[in-house]
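Re-run with default settings, no changes from the original entry. Doing this only to confirm the output is reproducible before filing.
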Amino acid sequence: MTDAGDRDRAPPWGIVATCGWMLAAFLLALAAAAIAYSLWFGPGATPATQPYDGVGLAVASFVMFPLEVAILAMAARWRGWSAADYFALNVPRRGEIVMAAACTLALIFAVNGLLYLTGKDIVSPFQVEAYRTAKDAGWLVWTMLAIVVVAPVGEEIAFRGFMYRGLARPGSEIPAIMVIALVWSLLHIQYDWVGMLQIFAIGLLFGWFRWASGSTTLTILMHVLVNLESMIETAIKVEMSS
């Protein structure tokens, strides 16, 4: 589907340039997050040494995602686009929102049902520890904000916004959706292979709706719904076991 704002524009960045911008934005944002982490927790502390800490997750998110989006927005403007048009941040139709929410919930329930039937935990150890450490530190609201709002906005703008714009050429949308979902899932190293496979499936769903609707705003809403449902499950598990 052709996005709003595509007409009478310079072409998007090519595949190599898109990947280069993504890598540069990710590495610079990751470095900034590591600096913020060490300033907050003390020298030597990094997201790698404390990957399950809820406070650290929030601190890193509040630094990393805004910087990453700012760099990609600069790249879009250098190409002669507004950031909103390049990222496809347009308003989806009501019917698209309803359908996207229904499909997202259906996939969540299907995955949770499969995990339950196979005897695997629906809530990962990462989610439990992040919730507990944030709660103990009095940072639960900020961690919830980082997970439910900041991360979905940042990730969707980067992957279904910027990366999709550069990789999804007419006729190659399906391969682009698959590649983007794969890269996105592999970056979630806090999960085991089952969790990554679940994220890959979610990425495929997000990618399809990005293609069908021409709206990254829609996939942001879907991502928010996924993370909100996940945090509700986590809260229930932690509070019931307290």
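The chain has one domain: 15-241. Residues 15-241 form one domain.
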